[in-house]
Amino acid sequence: MSLIVEASVDERGVEVALEVAKGETVALLGPNGAGKSTVLSVLAGHLVPDRGRVVLDGRVLTSQGRPGERRTQIPPHDRRVSLLAQEPLLFPHLSVLDNVAFGPRSTGAGRAAARETARQWLEEVGVADLAGRRPAEISGGQAQRAAVARALAATPSLMLLDEPMAALDVDVAPQLRQTLRRVLADRTVLLVTHDVLDALLLADRVVVLEDGAVVEHGPCAEVLSRPRSSFAARIAGLNMLRGAWRDGAVEVAYGGRSMRVEGIAADPVPGEGEEAVAVFGPSAVSVFLEAPHGSPRNAVEVTLSDLEPHGGQVRVRAGTLSADVSVRAVSELDLAPGTRGYFVVKASEVAIYRTR
Ligand SMILES: Nc1ncnc2c1ncn2[C@@H]1O[C@H](COP(=O)(O)OP(=O)(O)OP(=O)(O)O)[C@@H](O)[C@H]1O
């Protein structure tokens, strides 16, 4: 492993362990307050954990609260870790070129060599023509490209990206994502994101944090197609009901009542009483105003919370569940926020699996 992290930050309720292999990009996903930024701060050296260890390419960057081990806290500039934040954070008084040359300069390169390196990186990220401008004279997207060049020119062993596209216009973000995909290939990267596209296009693996702890991890496609955490299900656009496996179905408490959800149980089938999830896509859900009788279908009693257009259909939400139905069905059933009804899904459309 290139990067090994174990970090507990008591004040923030964070206790995380994760690893990143050399040349691997790992996306760190999770809801607000899950602890993603805390992990990045520990790695960057801006936050000292109460207990923990950060080892990068065999070098101990942080060691705290470990009996028998010397306390270590290498300062941020000496960790060979570059952080690309949401905002480009360029030095306003320096030209774009000198901003990028700053890294090589501070690690001992001569002025001319540092500028040459900077020029190459600006070329690589497509803003070489802006080298002579000040940050105030370029757009947000261009500044973020310059920030990518600056981060890479410092020849980091680890790149940290904190929602690098979040502050950009939607029409600029896809191009920067493509550039990142190219320049980050084969680097060791930890990427914090809320965006499932970032995970799919940039990451080899995802780690999902909830409430300060890792709740699942694995290759992107696997986590997004078979999520085990509510967060991963939500970003993958899937419905998830969690409960205990009993007598061939998942017993779920939903909306204050208990119900059984039937589906296709994946191997290995959950043990009796074991925690399991039932997962199904919104397109598999039909909406009814009355409970369907005598059919082998799952029906969840719901109160609709909102409706919005979704790819030629209407996405109807009820709490954490959603259904994609036709415009015609919405009109015929007169669906609106507050309507009480049933979300109905055939057992053959529900995947059931263990959460561990
Ligand atoms: N400077 C701080 N001092 C004390 N507690 C903090 C501080 N920053 C964050 N926290 C708390 O630490 C926990 C983890 O927050 P963190 O910012 O790491 O989450 P996050 O996953 O990055 O969230 P977001 O997606 O909203 O940025 C939260 O409970 C948060 O309220």
Q: Multimeric state of these chains?
A: single chain
Spatial extent as radius of gyration: 24 Å
Number of domains: 2
Shape: globular
User: CATH first level of the largest domain: which class?
Assistant: Alpha Beta
Assess the beta-strand content as a share of residues. Answer: 25-35%
N-to-C CA distance: 23 Å
User: Quick check: average pLDDT?
Assistant: 93
Number-wise, the strands total 23
**CATH superfamily membership of the largest domain:** P-loop containing nucleotide triphosphate hydrolases
CATH overall fold name of the largest domain: Rossmann fold
Largest sheet: 6 strands, mixed
Structural class: alpha+beta
Pfam families: ABC_tran (PF00005), TOBE (PF03459)
GO molecular function: ATP binding
Domain ABC transporter: 4-236
Protein name: Molybdenum import ATP-binding protein ModC
What's the arrangement of secondary structure elements?
Elements: E1 3-9, E2 14-20, E3 25-29, H1 36-44, E4 51-56, E5 59-64, E6 72-73, E7 81-84, H2 96-106, H3 111-124, H4 140-153, E8 158-162, H5 173-184, E9 189-192, H6 196-202, E10 205-210, E11 213-219, H7 220-225, H8 230-235, E12 239-246, E13 249-254, E14 257-261, E15 264-265, E16 275-280, E17 286-288, E18 297-303, E19 306-310, E20 313-318, E21 321-325, H9 327-333, E22 340-346, E23 351-354
Parallel strand pairs: 3-9, 3-10, 7-8, 8-9, 15-23
Antiparallel strand pairs: 1-2, 1-4, 4-5, 5-6, 10-11, 12-13, 12-16, 13-14, 16-23, 17-22, 18-22, 19-20, 20-21
Helix pairs in contact: 2-3, 2-4, 3-4
